[in-house]
Amino acid sequence: MTPVPAPRPALDPARVAVPLGWRLEITESTPSTNALVADRARAGEEHGLVVVAEHQTEGRGRLGRVWEAPARTSLTFSVLLRPDVPANDWPWLPLLTGYAVQAALADRLPHISLKWPNDVLVEECKVAGILVERIETPTGPAAVVGIGINVAQTLDELPVALATSVELETGEPVDRTDLLGQVLGSLHGLQGLLDDPGALRTAYADVCSTLGREVDLHLPADEVRRGEALDIDSRGALVVSTADGTLTVGAGDVIHVRPQQ
């Protein structure tokens, strides 16, 4: 019989290092923190709201995927941002978020990297996922930045085989309260890179394990194209060399092709 894990400790809001000007709310359970924050944004909520769920029951990932985890085993939260940057630079926000999460975890997980656009991997196993949604509000466009990090899941609690958790990788307990503060601080501190897409492009490319890899691109209409990931362009799109020429992809699912044994 598989042993039942001991109860996990709740987040301690008094100890979370919340960036100056941001506001933290913790709820025991909600279907989706992104949906909750989007509703608050449409009602006039200002930049910097952070909503964390101890248990997210209907979490969404990219491309409509479902994201679930047992209560208090992960960090599932959404941040309301109102970036003051040109519309052409908004596509960089999901990549910036991935970079910020990678940077926050790098001291614990030395082999951490990013799969374009913003899956956070330890080697080839996913440890965190991100969903950024742009919404229209009465005071202008807003970004709802949703982040889910596998923190304390056991192997039996992970949703898919190619997933991992911080504790599985480090082999020791992780204080979710401290980790939440680290990730929020990283996202807050790196926001300025949106004003310098060239610097963000360089920083992102340095930790993106997709570049130089053979990949399968799963595009709309069930089209799949294989090629070598060459570069990130000036808008954050992935540049891939295929048998039919160079392809630039702004959206789609990327699968790293494993080398033949």
Could you please describe the fold and organization of this structure?
This protein has 261 residues and is an alpha+beta fold. Helices cover 21% and strands 34% of the residues. The chain has five helices and 14 strands. A seven-stranded mixed β-sheet has the order 1-2-5-9-8-7-6, sandwiched between helices. A five-stranded antiparallel β-sheet has the order 13-12-11-10-14, with no helix packed on it. A two-stranded antiparallel sheet has the order 3-4. The chain is globular and about 55 Å long. The chain starts with 22 loop residues before the first strand and ends in a 5-residue tail after the last strand. 37% of the residues are buried. The mean pLDDT is 92.
**Strand line-up across the major sheet:** 1-2-5-9-8-7-6
User: What characterizes the major β-sheet?
Assistant: 7 strands, mixed
Mean of residue pLDDT? 92
Q: Classify the beta-strand content into a percent band.
A: 25-35%
So how many helices?
5
H/E series = EHEEEEHEEEEHHHEEEEE
